[in-house]
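Sequence in, structure out. Go.
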Amino acid sequence: MKKQPERPVLITDAARSQDDQLRSRQIRYVTMMSVRALCLVLGGILISARVPLLPLWLSLCALGMVLLPWMAVLIANDRPPKTKEERAADAAAREDVRRALEQPAPEPDHITIDAEIVDEPRRNPD
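Output:
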């Protein structure tokens, strides 16, 4: 009997890599589209077998063939849900931005120099 390798210990709270996320979304997409193909084959088998309640079964198969591609695309393009820590960090960042926008801007410490505009004397063209 082969000994199963131990899973590595997770020592970071970094998110899964983009490649891992993409791979899991691809697996979900292919699985859902396989179920759609199964609905199509099952619909063909049900028609040829003349089962009782045929309209009900065919409508369920048709519903699966119509809704599954839409749901598969939505799920495949979605990112994984945020963890509680990520949601808390987002809320804290939004609160910091809100507080910064509500506080009046500090008055700048500019030095103003009063000066008079002096016109240059005109030259007479000779």
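Check: DSSP finds three helices and no strands in the chain. The mean pLDDT is 83.
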